[in-house]
Design goal:
Length: about 650
């Protein structure tokens, strides 16, 4: 049994009460209709809560109209809260600037006017490739205001990755900055846009001057933010959009090399983001200071920096920098200075802080913290306890939230005022969500410790509406493994004796590195695009800090001419090549050059065996290999592993 029941004081003040479970169980659709009315201001009320007749293509709150930017900004000003801080922006230098809801309203209106003057109209796509600066949030909201779906591309992705996403989404405008600050240094960013844009649909590039570094400039295409936005009108009328109007596309890794553009729409997405931010993070907008440390390039930044908290009128911290710069105590300095009361971060960060030692956070006053959150991968119980004791003063509830880019918002999580916590488990579906674990045959598992597949059994408001431009892939990826009724999440899971769900990681070829999803296929195709590589296999090996790390096995081409690089030099070159093709986060931790890869007779690479090698385990059953001696050759070869 859990030692971590909520205190009476916490339970009494909590937004999310146990009654929500009963309400949701009584009537799924009525429950969500009530949340839609509670959390969202509709310009026109909806007449049908859910239309599932064209499953798996859902429509939520049909007939309803709303403007997301109005909901996230203007209505708070209208309610008399214009002076409330929306964003405490903390620059990478540590310097701070506070932006009120009234300020945000002006900035969003100006940016919407500027984007329209660059030709952006309702339905056009806008690619966003920016650091963690207020202009990024403003851009997303301005797009939402116009009804122009944004496609945010993580600033750590390469020019090639950006180009592929601009092309797939057919973006009309790209918003970026001259550069970005990384560990105290100004690094280029626009250079990647300059490489990515030519030959695509993008007509204009809007550029925030963030660092002042030199940039190349194309007068016919590039426009400075300070020229286009600063002088634009502060008046912009927010038009209502249909509940199912596309809000954004966000690319995520799948099992093939081609990233999937996950499509989210307006009314259902906003409803579930606001509701979960309220009942899971327990946000009290008038008193809390909330800080989600994710990057806006990932779904967590979309749902729990931009849309959920702003819809709720919360005050939050937006941090441009990294946890280790200017010093390893910067997170705690920020918590102390802004009296952060709710902190939402990733297990990989917690494990890094653990490694650095508790002396660092112990130097700061963290007594403002009352709720902690975790997202992106399973949090191991040891890290969970450290997080609770060292950061949470031994008493803050931790909400371990399981969800995905595809689910749009939190699905499984404790409710901090209701649930007795179980370290390491995201526990149960929240009220309104229905999860089950199925065996290979699609039969529900009910006994503890049986390992199966996590599925969602009822449509939910913030569910993805499809894969951009590829309805077949949508059906195939999510709705075919267990028939048309169940959404297959791609995660393995089991129950414990108390009925808590434990997520056991991906069952497909998707890795989770520092909470970021990367597909093995994507890295493999980057490796084989190098002229010296004939074949590549990548596996996700467990890693103490990052959860998983990519380990690559490559077969080199037989060269007539002599190879350009060899040994360690080649490994470095290949890692950099992957960095260039995808981005630095995708660089394999190690690359082993091998003569053969373990394959079945049908030619399928047996990654399971490579994973055994990468994780230093006894190699498993090799009986289905075409050549069973391959594994001993590989094992012999890697007694001298090459990595840098
Ligand atoms: C994993 C991030 C265990 C899971 C919001 C999922 C988790 C994938 C948790 C989605 C958690 C996320 N416990 N595993 N609390 N949260 N995951 O799309 O494998 O970047 O399928 O969304 O991360 O990653 P994505």
């Amino acid at each position: 049994m859990s030692d971590y029941a909520p205190s009476t004081e916490f339970a009494d003040q909590a937004v999310g009460k146990a009654g929500l479970f009963d309400e949701a169980a009584a009537d799924h659709e009525a429950f969500w209709a009530a949340r839609a009315h509670e959390y969202v201001t509709w310009s026109k009320d909806f007449d049908t809560t859910l239309d599932w007749s064209d499953a798996p293509f859902a429509q939520w709150f049909v007939g309803g109209e709303l403007n997301v930017a109005y909901n996230c900004v203007d209505r708070h000003v209208d309610a008399g809260n214009g002076d409330r801080v929306a964003l405490h922006f903390v620059a990478a230098s540590g310097e701070g600037r506070s932006i009120s809801y009234a300020d945000l309203q002006r900035e969003v209106a100006k940016a919407a006017n500027a984007l329209e003057s660059l030709g952006v109209a309702k339905g056009d796509r806008v690619a966003v490739y920016m650091p963690m600066i207020p202009e990024a949030v403003v851009t997303m909201l301005a797009c939402a205001r116009i009804g122009a779906p944004h496609s945010v591309v993580f600033g750590g992705f390469s020019a090639e990755a950006l180009k592929a996403r601009i092309e797939d989404g057919e973006a009309k405008v790209v918003v970026t900055s001259d550069g970005q600050f990384r560990k105290g240094k100004a690094m280029p960013l626009k250079t990647a846009v300059d490489k990515a844009v030519p030959g695509t649909t993008a007509e204009k590039v809007l550029v925030v001057q963030r660092t002042g570094i030199d940039v190349d400039w194309d007068d016919s295409r590039d426009v400075w933010w300070h020229d286009a936005v600063d002088g634009a009108s502060e008046e912009h009328e927010a038009q209502p959009h249909g509940s199912e109007h596309p809000l954004f596309i966000l690319y995520t890794s799948g099992t093939t090399g081609k990233p999937k553009g996950i499509l989210h729409t307006t009314g259902g997405y906003l409803t579930q983001c606001a509701y979960t931010n309220s009942v899971v993070h327990d946000v009290h907008p008038e008193s809390d200071v909330y800080w989600c440390t994710a990057d806006i390039g990932w779904v967590t930044g979309h749902s729990y920096i931009v849309y959920g908290p702003l819809a709720n009128g919360a005050t939050q911290v937006l941090y441009e920098g990294t946890p280790d710069s200017p010093h390893q105590g910067i997170f705690w300095e920020i918590v102390e200075k802004y009296k952060v009361s709710i902190l939402y971060t990733a297990p990989t960060a917690v494990r890094t802080f653990m490694k650095w030692g508790r002396e660092i956070p112990d130097k700061y006053d963290l007594s403002s913290i009352r709720v902690l959150g975790s997202v992106g991968e399973p949090i191991n119980p040891e890290a969970w306890r450290w997080y609770r004791d060292v950061i949470g003063g031994g008493s803050a509830p931790i909400v371990d939230t399981w969800w995905q880019t595809e689910t749009g918002a939190i699905m499984n999580s404790p409710l901090p005022g209701v649930t007795a916590l179980e370290p390491g488990s995201s526990q149960r579906a929240i009220p309104g969500i229905h999860a089950e674990i199925l065996d290979d045959e699609g039969q529900p598992l009910t006994e503890p410790e049986q390992v199966g597949y996590l599925v969602l059994t009822k449509p939910w408001p913030s569910m993805l509406r499809g894969i951009w431009g590829d309805p077949e892939r949508y059906k195939e990826t999510y709705w075919s493994r267990f028939g048309p009724k169940y959404y297959f999440a791609g995660d393995g899971a089991k129950y414990d004796e108390d009925g808590n769900i434990w997520i056991l990681g991906r069952v497909d070829d998707v890795m989770n590195i520092s909470g970021h999803r990367l597909s093995t296929a994507e890295i493999e195709s980057a490796l084989v695009s190098h002229k010296q590589v004939a074949e590549a296999a990548v596996v996700g090996a467990s890693d103490e800090t990052t959860g998983q790390a990519a380990v690559a096995f490559v077969i080199l081409r037989e060269h007539g001419e002599s190879a350009d690089a060899q040994g360690d030099e080649l490994v470095t070159e290949l890692r950099n090549h992957v960095g260039q093709e995808i981005g630095p986060i995708a660089k394999p931790r190690s690359i082993m050059v091998v003569d053969e890869l373990p394959k079945t007779r049908s030619g399928k690479i047996m990654r399971r065996l490579l994973k055994d090698v990468a994780e230093n385990r006894e190699v498993g059953d090799v009986s289905t290999l075409a050549d069973s001696s391959v594994m001993s050759q590989i094992k012999d070869g890697i007694d001298k592993p090459s990595s840098d």
